[in-house]
Specification:
Helix content: 40-55%
Largest sheet: none
Number of helices: 4
Number of strands: 0
Order of helices and strands: HHHH
Length: about 90
């Protein structure tokens, strides 16, 4: 996958990691924290900002949307994948 040279490194890393974990239902929160030092909610917010800035392929955007929805959960993140927020 290639992006414009002006895209920040973190943005490329966010999209790359999210894409790699699509077949597995998304990046585990522990790996998100280990890799970026942020919460799952922050990851999803930054991912969608990166996707917007990178102008990703519509097929990738659709695949990411299925795993990392932007809205829907009462806790602000719909990627809990069956885990309790408490």
């Amino acid at each position: 996958m290639s992006f414009g040279q002006d895209l920040p490194r973190e943005a490329v890393e966010l999209i790359t990691l999210a894409r790699q974990w699509i077949p597995y239902g998304g990046v585990p929160p522990e790996l998100i924290f280990q890799t970026f030092g942020i919460t799952e909610h922050q990851f999803v917010d930054r991912l969608w900002a990166a996707v917007r800035d990178a102008r990703c392929d519509p097929h990738l955007v659709h695949a990411l949307s299925a795993i990392y929805p932007r809205h829907g959960s009462p806790w602000g993140v719909s990627t809990m994948r069956g885990r309790s927020p408490v």
